[in-house]
Amino acid sequence: MCLAGCERAVCEALTRRGFFGAAAATAGFAAVGVASGTAVAAPKSFTTVVDLTHTMSAAFPTFNGKPGIEMQREFSLKKDGYNLYWWRVSEHAGTHMDAPIHFSERGATADQLAIDQLVVPLAVVDIVYKAEQDADYLLSLDDLALWESKHGRLPDGCCVALYSGWGELLVTDEARFSGRDIDGTFHFPGFAPEAAAWMMKERKVAGIAVDTLSLDNGPSRDFKTHQLWLGSGRWGLENVANLGKVPASGATLVVGAPKVKDATGGLTRVLALV
Length: 274
Prior knowledge:
By secondary structure, the chain is an alpha/beta fold. The protein has helices spanning 6-13, 22-35, 77-80, 128-133, 141-151, 169-172, 174-178, 193-201, 224-231; strands at residues 49-51, 69-75, 84-89, 96-98, 119-126, 138-139, 158-163, 190-191, 205-210, 235-238, 251-256, 265-267, 269-273. The protein has a nine-stranded mixed sheet with strand order 1-13-11-5-7-9-10-4-12. The radius of gyration is 21 Å and the shape is globular.
């Protein structure tokens, strides 16, 4: 039989910081159940995994219009006994991470980010209606205040994601996703620098994410949100998918950041545990 408090200890282990360490405790708990002849379901703190990653291809929109990835077949199964491609890839295309070094002189590179900063609570701020009215909308302090009035204070160490609905446009209206006008100016929502500064000073936010091409809005020329946010040692995610499929609060974000020496960012697999 399970020792007193065993089950509760396992459940308590399945917090954000204890999530991975809980695997051993869960295995032990399950083993006790098997030994006693009683089937015991392994507990977990989520029921659904939502993929927040777009499929990357040469057709994925980029700022300069050049392919974000090129794939060259090096070996084939028929000829060589296995398949293998060489990749030529931009660090900042598709669903990807911006590491602090991307906009700072001495910031952390992608491989230097602490792993406990990459499994964090997720707060999704819905600005879909406002973005429909203004393609250049900037997520504001008022938007953050409204979120907190409904869901409570932003969790320490969380990622705040801007959900504008832009991610869905990759399927329905790719030209609007990029928003490039006849003069070459882009149009899509982003974070207001004031909102970024407030999250840095008044809250303990680890990262921010957008379902658009950039943390700053499309017309930005100075990339002030990038400058502020990444310059403070924090990370960002761009071109995130499926934010409309996760709750405004309560999910855990798993950021599969590239562990490449000296990388300023890179293609990233992003998951939400709900």
